[in-house]
Write a structure and sequence with these properties.
Layout: H1 4-10, H2 18-34, H3 36-50, H4 52-70, H5 76-79, H6 82-110, H7 118-146, H8 149-156, H9 158-174, H10 182-191, H11 200-207, H12 209-241, H13 245-270, H14 275-299, H15 304-315, H16 321-327, H17 334-363, H18 368-399
Helix pairs in contact: 1-2, 2-6, 2-17, 3-4, 3-6, 3-17, 4-6, 4-9, 6-7, 6-17, 7-13, 12-13, 12-17, 12-18, 13-15, 14-15, 14-18, 16-17
């Protein structure tokens, strides 16, 4: 996303309008999101049947390799139509891997920590995922600062992908020392005495549909916060407000730091306060901060450094969403439940969001991104209120 301007220029004909090359570039990125459910469901199935650790390691391998290969791809000028097709193939491979990586990571840490530390564990993990975004942003800042525009089009754009692939292989090597979760090992002992042929994802759909719908809606909110406020905004600042790429990426890096801190704070609060209150209050603060950020770009652009950091921090409420997801499914189908709800929702919302906003920004309004994100976090407020109501109703039932 950070380098989509360069990728659009290199992987499509030079005479293509900029906005159209951007739409097609976002379309290739969207393909990775659309294929996530398939990878996630398959990996989660085997993760629920044979172990979290094995799938947790495999997903990283399948993500590191195509990331490295993207940095080695030929461009449209040298390979023609083959270039964007290869880019699409690598993006599909990434999508398959990420489909199992994120839900697997949440499930893995939630089953390793004490019951009263699930929130902070999931918050730290989500912050860790955000740290990966930060590293990508910082590398983008460095290459745009130290490489000229001509060098960026030859070697500069490749470096972040090559470095990302190398770090992925290092992380995969380190995961060799991880141990299987105690929850799964206990569940495996029970299965030795009984035949369990149920397909986990079918159990999720049949028995846990309300929880799945809420999880999917929360994922939609999460995708809006991460994709629009964090991933797409650097290009938005450059194309809509003529802010230099260096300033846009540096401000974005600070916003991601705010996001990391926010994920940890909100995740920790989920262990102490009801998840409904955390989600409703957190999303309300996010609406205010995001609205202030986009408004300041037009009327007080000098406040960019303050408003963007605050927006990033408040988006960190998404760090508490995983707490709800891992707690609303039993261990036997937890991986599949989280994976199905997260990936299906992210495939639809994450896949269509960049295309939708790119088209709306070009044909309708430059503030399409702001309206979209604020509306989604408004839905987050309603979901939090719903969870508060359900918790009160459950408490009243138990007291009778």
């Amino acid at each position: 996303m950070f380098l989509s301007i360069f990728i659009g220029h290199l992987f499509f004909p030079s005479d293509m309008p900029v906005w159209l090359s951007q739409v097609q570039t976002y379309g290739i990125f969207a393909a990775g999101y659309l294929i996530r459910p398939f990878g996630g469901i398959v990996m989660a199935h085997f993760g629920d049947k044979f172990g979290r650790k094995k799938m947790f390691t495999l997903s990283l391998l399948l993500m590191a390799l195509p990331t490295l290969l993207i940095g080695c791809l030929p461009t449209y000028q040298s390979a023609g139509i083959i270039a964007p097709l290869l880019l699409l193939l690598m993006r599909l491979c990434q999508g398959l891997a990420v489909g199992g990586e994120v839900p697997g990571a949440w499930t893995f840490v939630a089953e390793h920590v004490p019951h009263h530390r699930v929130g902070i564990a999931c918050g730290i993990l989500t912050a860790g995922l955000s740290l990966g975004i930060l590293l990508g942003s910082l590398v983008s800042v460095m290459v745009t600062r130290y490489f000229s525009a001509e060098s960026m089009l030859t070697i500069g754009w490749r470096l972040p992908f090559i470095l990302g692939g190398i770090f992925g292989f290092i992380a995969m090597f380190l995961r060799r020392w991880l141990k299987e979760t105690p929850v799964f090992l206990e569940m495996q002992k029970q299965r030795q005495h009984e035949k369990d042929r149920a397909i986990p994802v079918m159990v999720v759909i049949a028995k846990y549909l309300p929880q799945t719908i809420i999880s999917m809606l929360l994922t939609w909110v999460l995708s809006a916060g991460i994709m629009v406020v964090i991933l797409m905004t650097p290009n938005y600042l450059q194309t809509q407000f003529n802010i230099s790429s260096q300033v846009a990426l540096e401000a974005n890096a600070l916003a991601i730091i705010g996001l990391i801190v926010g994920c940890i704070v909100y995740g920790g609060l989920a262990d102490k306060i009801s998840i409904g209150k955390i989600i409703s209050w957190g999303c309300a603060l996010a609406v205010l901060a995001i609205a202030a950020f986009y408004t300041s770009l037009q009327y007080r652009p000098e406040l960019l450094w303050v408003t963007y950091i605050l927006a990033g921090f408040t988006v960190g409420v998404v760090g508490s969403f995983a707490y709800f997801m891992v707690r609303c499914y039993p261990a036997s189908v937890r991986y599949s439940g989280v994976s199905f709800s997260f990936n299906v929702a992210y495939a639809i919302a994450g896949g269509l969001t960049p295309l939708l906003i790119a088209l709306l920004t070009h044909f309708a309004t430059g503030f399409a991104a702001a309206y979209y994100v604020v509306a989604l976090f408004g839905i987050g407020i309603l979901l939090g209120i719903l969870l508060i109501y359900k918790a009160k109703k459950l408490t009243a039932t138990e007291m009778q």
